[in-house]
Amino acid sequence: MNIDAIDPAGVAGEGEAPVAQAVLSSHESPAGAFGSCGTRLVGPPPRRPVPTSISMCVDLGGLEMKNPVTVASGTFAAGREYGDFVDVGSLGAVTTKGVSLNGWEGNASPRIAETPSGMLNSIGLQNPGVAHLKEHDLPWLQERGATVIVNVSGHSFDEYVQVIEALEDAPVDAYEVNISCPNVDAGGMTIGTCTDSVEAVVGRCRAATKRPLIVKLTPNVTDVAEIARAAEAAGADALSLINTLLGMAVDAKRRRPQLARVVGGLSGPAVKPVALRMVWEVHRAVSVPLLGMGGISTGIDAVEFMLAGATSVAAGTVNFVNPRASVEIVDGIAQYCEEQGVQDVRELIGALEC
């Protein structure tokens, strides 16, 4: 079944929400899609959200999003790898993998380890550099009508600014500044763990652009609200959280760590309770909108983050399990709104009753 052609009024039975009925129908195997030996003959088109009467638009610090769902940096590359599964132009935004000025080689292998309800990664922000992004990836996203958030990484305050300056003439809608990088100007200390360094890097990035500036917070701090307030004071238009939690995995038989660098970033469903708590705390501490992430796998997960205070959400590790997850989360949010009598998705933001 082609879900783009679904008439919501025509598929819903009595008492059934249009999105709910359409989503269920979209999982049926299309007739003729498989041969008698099971070989796939025709692949389905890239998935788009099911039409809905719910107003799904949100404003993330000046970034107009057609729905509240983007993808977490580092889990979606720049979208090209997922183009056969998802219509990237139908998402609220595509957030690119972190980009640095001249490219980084990344860490030694092994650098990924599966954990209960999640995964550890120690990729090291490997990327080919901003020139490659501008030449190869941003034109591809522009051709597909995608709203683009570029995740900016740097090992020094100057590098962050240089990346933004290099992108100012490119088709970019917003920047997400990853302040979880180690700062070589401060002996390798993670920039996002100290209010002084947060204010310094965000202030310099703010001076370099008039585009929406989203600052991505690390959860590996004592008081995330304090860091959030520092980013807001320095000019952030929005905050995204959480980045990965620091963790490790051990191979008991070999008596060695599973990652070459011993520790890595934990993501996936295991971190969701921590992420929800931090979004709720930060929502009460600042006035700028929040992009919530951390263990989101379903539409209900996303709704929970919005109730806790997020304006928009990002699907991350789930993309490795289900490449169509981002669009399914859009549909899940719309289905919840239909069932709850919510006409505008913005009604969910911060609506948690405590």
TrEMBL record:
InterPro entries: Aldolase_TIM (IPR013785), DHO_dehydrogenase (IPR050074), DHOD_1B (IPR033888), Dihydroorotate_DH_1 (IPR024920), Dihydroorotate_DH_1_2 (IPR012135), Dihydroorotate_DH_cat (IPR005720), Dihydroorotate_DH_CS (IPR001295), Dihydroorotate_DH_I (IPR049622)
Single annotated GO MF: dihydroorotate dehydrogenase activity
Family per similarity comment: Belongs to the dihydroorotate dehydrogenase family. Type 1 subfamily.
Cofactor note: Binds 1 FMN per subunit.
Domain Dihydroorotate dehydrogenase catalytic, first and last residues per copy: 56-335
Enzyme nomenclature, EC number: 1.3.-.-
Protein name: Dihydroorotate dehydrogenase
Pathway(s) the chain acts in: Pyrimidine metabolism; UMP biosynthesis via de novo pathway
Binding, FMN: 73, 97-98, 151, 178, 216, 242, 268, 294-295, 316-317
Gene assigned in the entry: pyrD
Catalytic activity: (S)-dihydroorotate + A = orotate + AH2
Gene Ontology BP annotations: 'de novo' pyrimidine nucleobase biosynthetic process; 'de novo' UMP biosynthetic process
Cited PANTHER family: DIHYDROOROTATE DEHYDROGENASE (FUMARATE), DIHYDROOROTATE DEHYDROGENASE (QUINONE), MITOCHONDRIAL-RELATED
Role: Catalyzes the conversion of dihydroorotate to orotate.
Family matches, as CDD domains: DHOD_1B_like
Enzymatic class: oxidoreductase
Xref: HAMAP family: DHO_dh_type1
Record-linked NCBIfam families: PRK07259.1, pyrD_sub1_fam
Requisite cofactors: FMN
Active site location: 181
Keyword field contains Oxidoreductase: yes
Source superkingdom: Bacteria
Keywords: Cytoplasm, Flavoprotein, FMN, Oxidoreductase, Pyrimidine biosynthesis
Binding locations of substrate: 97, 121-125, 178, 243-244
